[in-house]
Structures are given as C-alpha cells and as structure tokens.
C-alpha cells in the first residue's frame, strides 16, 4: 500500500473547505488508493467551528483518511506537507477597498510563504484559492525561496469550468467533450476567457468555436462547492497529468506570450504527471489584436497588484 501523503487545507472552517475536505479525503484528487493525512488550518477564533468539521469528517468514515489535525499553529500545519490548498483569506468586507483587501492578504500570504519555506517538503505543490489569488501566490513564493517558483500556482480553474459548462449547454454536448478553453491572466474581472481554440465533440463531429463567437459573460463568483471542485480538478491534473487536454492554471510566467517574467498569470498548460509532475505552458498560439489587448490589460493589473503587494512587504 502507498505511504500516506500530507495535505494541508487553510481556511478549513470556511465555506469552500467544507466541501473541499470531503472531496480530498474520499479520493477524488489523489486517487482511491492513496491514503492521506489531512491538516486543517484556521485562525484561533474559528477553532470551535473547525472542531465541528473534524467531527463530521470522522463521521464520514472515509477509509483513505488517516490522521486529521486541526490547528492554528503554522509549524504544525505546514510541517512536511506534500500539497497545500491555500483557501483561507481575509474576506472583502463592506466598504473595503481593493487595496485594503490586498494589504490584509499580502500579510497573511507572506507569513504562509515563510512557513512553507521553513517547514514544508521542498517539492510541495501549492494552489492558492484565497483572493487576490494570483498575487497571493506571487508573495507566497517570494517568501519561500527554497521551494521552486513553479510549485506556486493560483486557481483559475473555476473560471475554466464555468466557461466549459456554458459552451456544453449551448452546444448541447457533454462538458467532458469540450476542450481547449483558455483563461488568460488574473482571477479577476480583467481575466480573458478565450474560446477561439475551443473544440467540442458532438455526435462524433468536431466543432470549432469561431473567432468572434459569443464570449463568456461576466458572472459572480460561484458557490463554494464548485470552487472546491475546481481546486480538486487543478491539483488532480497536476498530480496525474492531463494527457493532451489543455487546462488553465495561474503559474509564474517564464516570459511566454510577452507576459513579464515572474507574474503569476493564467496560461493554458499541459501537465505531464509521472514522477516529475511538471506542467508546460502551451506554446505557439496565435494571439490576435483583441486577445493581445485583453491579455495585456490583465497583465497590467497584475503588475499593479505586485507593486502594491511589494510596497506592503517592504523587505
Ligand atoms: P469563508 O470566509 O467562508 O472562509 C475563509 C476562512 O479562512 C475562514 O474560516 C477564515 O477564518 C479563514 N482564514 C482567514 N485568515 C486565515 C489565515 N491567516 N489562516 C488560515 N485561515 C484563515 O470564504 P470561502 O467562501 O471559503 O472563500 C475563501 C477564499 O476563496 C476567499 O478569499 C474567496 O475570495 C476565494 N475564492 C477564490 C476563487 C478562485 O477562483 N480563485 C473562487 C471562489 C472564492 O471566491
């Protein structure tokens, strides 16, 4: 039998985590033959609530779930972890400016980066869900210099899943038969959902979404269950590989498509799986003027976020 892996979920007393911990513990992400320890981190104030989540998890009687640790202590939480779902963040409150939200969260993700650097396995895989997700991932990575940059990613998979579901509905086909939908950029209103390359198989035929086809309308953030599902999809594909499917992940840019190096930007990627668990940005896609301007707009927003975040961190 496989050795258990250690998986951390932060914001574990929150909404998304309430679905997420069950998905993980029942084998949806790492496979139904992979035992795991689940480490649940939240703030002190939430420990009682978290205790309730632990009770429920136990009551699910999940055979893959070994140890459950509920804690507000970073050392306990980050120690020797293989994978981190960083969901917990300061929520946007009424009257709060984007900058206030960013400032509060940069401080949290700086601390979590330092904890990752100090305590986690050096090959730990990180997905940041908590907003502003891309910039939180960038800050986290900055403060965890001993962990490869490419191990820090942010979630745009919910945006991809939403786009795929809409396309499938319009074309009356199964969502599994939709491929090559891309989310470029930031997980924010400036993201660019690109359906120019999308393919959908219907009745055995392949239909290509034409340029200028209806683009996905802007929507509110969805319920916690779909966000939890999307974070599972992201990590599962990274863990096991995607074959020739494209998936969108916000990853540190290597300069592809003219996006400044180091920005955590959503690209279409292919994950290799295997022992290496690498991902590669899909190369060679034609970028028309419309796409260029959309992609640059999102990059510009991320540069502004980076500047703001770094001015908060100072050191
Ligand atoms: P909730 O407010 O229900 O839960 C957040 C939890 O995080 C709370 O229990 C809180 O106590 C905890 N928390 C706060 N600071 C913490 C810290 N320093 N360490 C550990 N835990 C901490 O929010 P929920 O609906 O679960 O959403 C979580 C985050 O996901 C939010 O930032 C939200 O904006 C973001 N989202 C990101 C999405 C994406 O696609 N990237 C989509 C869904 C979601 O909106």
From TrEMBL:
It comes from the Eukaryota. Keywords: NAD, Oxidoreductase, Tricarboxylic acid cycle. Its EC number is 1.1.1.37. Pfam families: Ldh_1_C, Ldh_1_N. It catalyses: (S)-malate + NAD(+) = oxaloacetate + NADH + H(+). Residues 156-199, 206-308 form the Lactate/malate dehydrogenase C-terminal domain. Residues 6-152 form the Lactate/malate dehydrogenase N-terminal domain. NCBIfam families: PRK05442.1. Belongs to the LDH/MDH superfamily. MDH type 2 family. This is Malate dehydrogenase.
């Amino acid at each position: 039998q496989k050795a258990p892996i250690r998986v951390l979920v932060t914001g574990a007393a929150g909404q998304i985590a309430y679905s997420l911990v069950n998905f993980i513990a029942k084998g949806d992400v790492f496979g139904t033959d992979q035992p795991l320890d689940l480490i649940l981190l939240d703030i002190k104030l939430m420990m009682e609530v978290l205790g309730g989540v632990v009770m429920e998890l136990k009551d699910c009687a999940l055979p893959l779930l070994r140890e459950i640790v509920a804690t507000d202590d970073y050392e306990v939480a980050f120690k020797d972890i293989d994978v981190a779902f960083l969901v917990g963040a300061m929520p946007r409150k009424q009257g709060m400016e984007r900058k206030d939200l960013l400032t509060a969260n940069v401080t949290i993700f700086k601390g979590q980066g330092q904890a990752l650097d100090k305590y986690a396995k050096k090959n730990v895989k990180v997905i940041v869900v908590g907003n502003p997700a891309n910039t939180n991932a960038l800050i986290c990575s900055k403060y965890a210099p001993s962990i490869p940059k490419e191990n820090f990613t942010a979630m745009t998979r919910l945006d991809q899943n939403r786009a795929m579901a809409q396309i499938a509905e319009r074309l009356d086909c199964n969502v599994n038969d939709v491929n090559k939908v891309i989310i470029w950029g930031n997980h924010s209103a400036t993201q660019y959902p690109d359906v120019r390359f999308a393919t959908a198989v219907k009745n055995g035929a392949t239909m290509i979404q034409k340029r200028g086809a209806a683009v996905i309308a802007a929507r509110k953030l969805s319920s916690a269950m779909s966000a939890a599902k999307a974070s599972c999809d992201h990590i599962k594909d990274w863990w096991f590989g995607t074959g020739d499917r494209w998936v969108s992940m916000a990853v540190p840019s290597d300069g592809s498509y003219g996006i400044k190096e180091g920005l955590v930007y959503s690209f279409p990627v292919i994950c290799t799986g295997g022992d290496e668990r690498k991902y590669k940005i899909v190369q060679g896609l034609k970028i028309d003027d419309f796409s260029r301007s959309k992609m640059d707009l999102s990059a510009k927003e991320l540069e502004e976020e980076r500047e703001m975040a770094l001015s908060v961190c100072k050191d």
